[in-house]
Specification:
With 284 residues, the chain is α/β, with parallel strands linked by helices. It has ten helices and nine strands. The longest helix has 16 residues. The structure holds adenosine monophosphate (AMP).
Length: 284
């Protein structure tokens, strides 16, 4: 098995990129890699000559009261997974390599980030778009691999890539789940054993609502919202952050469900915030 080359500096990555031959796929991550990340890496390795994985816990996308300090950083495990999956390069920069002193630019994709996580986490998507644009300028990939698990993030990056003519194909990959339906997330390890038992309730409630939409019986977003609350509170102690019905491309709220939509949800179990989403296609 060919080894993975590890770069910590932009200059090293730049030299590698200048010499790289063939197509390049890119998987940006914050590390603590799990089977969801692994699926993105596998897909990139299958579709490209070379795959770059980045691991960067991006301070710019965390709010002051969020978990930047305690975000898991199991470096050796992450490196082993990249090696196992056949990534060519692991880019693991220090914050100072991405944000030199007096860094003063930011990228905001207007509209797509207005609701859902954009509303709950002010500034979060500016941090995401800024770092992803910088990484794309550095890696110059032919294809960029993102997870549907973060549907709004994927919609924002897709729009940024189109608006700014970045010339990268964006590939959005399905959400990888535990057997009980819980979406894999680096933050799942914060859950207590009791919370872990309850956690699949978020996806269960989303699926039940998606079924309600699919039957064509419920077309009103407010009614779907009530149904969601009923399903979720049947498995308390959830604290709902948001539930909503979104246009899958623009991420704007939809009131009358007469076309395919995405059901979006975020909720807390204790101090852990979980997000998930589900497609819902109404029978017309
Ligand atoms: P993160 O490390 O959480 O920033 O995620 C890095 C990339 O992996 C993003 O494109 C995520 O959407 C994607 N990802 C995270 N969890 C999953 C999952 N369970 N299934 C598929 N993709 C995922």
């Amino acid at each position: 098995m060919a080894g993975v080359q590890i770069f910590k500096k932009n200059s090293e990555l730049r030299d590698w990129r200048l010499k790289a031959v063939g197509s390049v796929g890119f998987v940006p991550t914050m590390g603590a890699l799990h089977a969801g990340h692994a699926a993105l890496i596998e897909r990139s390795v299958a579709e490209n000559d070379l795959t770059v994985v980045s691991v960067f816990v991006n301070p710019m996308q965390f709010g002051p009261a969020e978990d930047l300090g305690r975000y898991p950083r199991p470096w050796e495990k992450d490196e082993a997974l990249c090696r196992l999956k056949g990534a060519a390069t692991l880019y693991w920069p220090e914050p100072s390599d991405i944000y030199p002193p007096f860094f003063s630019s930011q990228v905001e994709v207007l509209g797509v980030g207005d609701h859902w996580c954009g509303r709950s986490r002010p500034g979060h998507f500016i941090g995401v778009s800024t770092v992803v644009l910088k990484l794309l300028m550095r890696v110059k990939p032919n294809r960029l691999y993102l997870g549907q698990k973060d549907a709004q993030q994927a919609a924002i990056i897709t729009k940024m890539v189109a608006d700014l003519d970045l010339g990268t194909e964006v590939v959005v990959c399905p959400t990888v789940r535990e057997l009980d339906g819980l979406a894999l997330s680096s933050r799942n390890q914060y859950l207590t054993a009791k919370e872990r038992e309850i956690a699949p309730g978020l996806h269960r409630a989303l699926r039940l609502c998606a079924k309600g939409v699919q039957t064509g019986l419920i077309k009103d977003s407010k009614a779907i919202g009530q149904l969601f609350q009923e399903h979720l509170s049947s498995s308390s102690p959830w604290r709902l952050d948001y539930f909503g019905v979104a246009d899958p491309v623009t991420m704007q709220p939809v009131e009358l469900i007469d076309k395919p939509v995405r059901l979006m949800a975020a909720a807390f179990l204790g101090t852990t915030r979980l997000i998930d989403n589900e497609a819902a296609n109404p029978r017309i």
